[in-house]
User: Fold this.
Amino acid sequence: MKSGELAERLGAACHGNADLELTGVAAIENAGPGDVTFVANPRYTALARNTRAGAVLVAPDFPEIQATTLRIENPYLAWARVLEMFHPAPKYPPGIHPTAVIAASAQIGEGASIGPYAVIGDNCVIGKRATLLPHVVIYPNVRIGDDFLAHAHSVVREGCVLGDRVVLQNGVIVGGDGFGFAKDQAGHWQKIVQPGPVVLEDDVEIQSNSCIDRASVGETRIARGAKIDNLVQVGHSSTVGEDTLLCAQVGLAGSTHIGKSAILAGQVGVAGHCHLGDRVIVTAQSGIGGDVEEGKVVSGSPAYDNKQWLRVSALMPRLPEILKRLERAVKKTAE
Assistant:
């Protein structure tokens, strides 16, 4: 693809050689003359000046460099589109593999691709153009919309409801039992039944080996456009708002409620029955033990305002020195 054609398809302005033949994509440090790369962070300006890449996606006000530049308002989003152009997703032909087990009462939409050893239970309804790769298991009474993609060994438990364009990566469990137990008089734990389904709205993606638990009462709901990273645990009866990101190893205890467009970075833990408002950002390894107002950025465990946390963190290495100075001052005053 020529650089000018790529610019046209992206809606970018091409500065430089519009006839340059581009054959691939690469990181800015490793790119060669036939590669496209991108710069979305000013810290990489120096790398852009020295890159061997044929073309670089940059913001409109980015300085001129030797390489051809494709100037666009959101180079990172444009980079995502470029990756899709050069590495389109695999296409799976419609059809049902002879080893798949599908209940007679299940309804499968047209254009579906059902892979080896997939299992679809009684009374399931699956929309058009679904792709179930090997060993996917859909329990009875599940409802799934159009353009569903389930990678190998993902599971959707009984009665769950999934919208359109939902993606489950390998090993995802949607609707496993919530962690609910009550202690009896003898001190033994008795299981609390978890009949409430999980609801995944349109355009939700859940990545490998994450678990979204079903509810004891009501439902667990992941709203439209939310994205959930690997190894995330969403507890029973929780809700996750539209376009919210839960990064790797986040854990939400039961009845946690996250607003819209929030970001929980890696290894964040949230205690049960907490409410995090819209656009909240929680930095990595923080622990949330109470409600967080909308728009707040918090850090630490227990978490508090990020700016204050940064000041406290900067002081930590100096505490021994500060303590010695304080002890000397106290001693001098005592004399």
Remarks:
- The chain is about 15% helix and 25% strand.
- Residues 319-334 form the longest helix (16 residues).
- Helices lie at 3-10, 45-50, 75-86, 306-315, 319-334.
